[in-house]
Structures are given as C-alpha cells and as structure tokens.
Amino acid sequence: MILRRILATTASSVFVVGALASCGGGTGETATSATLAPSVAATSAAAATSQKATFLILQGDTVRSPEGLTDEEKAYLSCVQQSRFPQGSRIVWRFRVLDPLTNKPLDDKAMASFDLILPDGSKTPFKYGGHGGTKENPAEYFWTAGFSIPKDYPTGLFSYQVKAVSTAGATGTFEQMKVPAAQLTIVPLGKR
Description:
- This protein has two domains: 2-50, no CATH class; 57-187, Immunoglobulin-like (Sandwich).
- The chain is α+β, with helices and mostly antiparallel strands.
- It has a four-stranded antiparallel beta sheet with strand order 1-3-7-6, with no helix packed on it. A four-stranded antiparallel beta sheet has the order 5-4-9-10, with no helix packed on it.
- The radius of gyration is 25 Å and the shape is globular.
- The longest helix is centred in the N-terminal third of the chain and has 21 residues, at 2-22.
- 21% of the residues lie in helices and 31% in strands.
- It has helices at 2-22, 38-50, 71-77; strands at 57-64, 84-86, 90-98, 111-117, 123-125, 127-131, 140-148, 156-157, 161-166, 171-175, 185-187.
C-alpha cells in the first residue's frame, strides 16, 4: 500500500514537472532553454534557425488623410484612426508586416508584393517609408496605401482586402471583421 502511494506520487510529480516544463509553468509562457534538457534546447535552437516563415502577420488601421480638410479639421481628423469616411475624403491604410518567427517588421527589401485590393478588384500597391518626426529622422517606418473617395461614390460598407508576399515566399492576408458596425463605411458627404 505504501509502495503504491510512493509510485503514484512519483508518477504524478513527474507528470506535473513535465507539464510545467512543456507549457511554461502554466503562465502562458513557453518554456525557456534553461528549463529544457540541454539536448532538447540545442535541438530547438537549431530548428528555429533553420525554419522559414510560411505566413506573415499583418497589423494595420485606417485613417483620414488631411486632403480636403480645413486647418481646424486637420487638428482632430487627420491621421486619426477611424472606420467612417465621407464621400470626397481620402482613406489611408497604415500597415506593418511582421515575420512570425522573429516578430520583426519587414521593409521594402523583404517584400515581393504588398497590395490593397479595392471593392472593384483593382489593386493599389503599398509604399514603405518613414512617418512622423522629421524627413531626416522619422518617428517610425511603416507601409501606406490610399484611396480618394469620389464625391458621388455609393455610401455603405467598403469591402477591401490586403495581401502581402515576402521575397522568401511567405504570405499574409488581412480582411475586415464581418460585424457590419466594425467595417469601413462610406458615409454621405456632409458627415464628417
């Protein structure tokens, strides 16, 4: 009886230690090389360096261009995140493309193509560059694309898609949430 308890306790302890090591102690973190056996850590490190991303992470938002705004409106409407755009305004998409293995942003040298696909199926390429700060010392770098909404453009939901392909062949796609209230919407000209 005592031997069974010892064996059961030992087996439970091994299982708990194994589970903690494999899932980062239950904190949502991954196990570090310090918690893995040396041979496992070396194998994991070698595998990570030989891996190549097959997908890309796309992060982005939409803002209103200062085009067509008064100086007063520019102060509170230009380059501010929004999803409602009046006819006659300009939508600007700001995006980052991240490598999922390194979590580092990819620049124009790392991308084969990066396109905004509009509701009519036409493509507009994103451009990479510095933003904010000064021309000589930008605050940060990211990708942008824009669309000037004609004054007679139909109001309602504006479906678009973003597609990226790295020079290494990894791909990423961004689509809006399916909840209508969260989607980019064109509103009548008088609505700002």
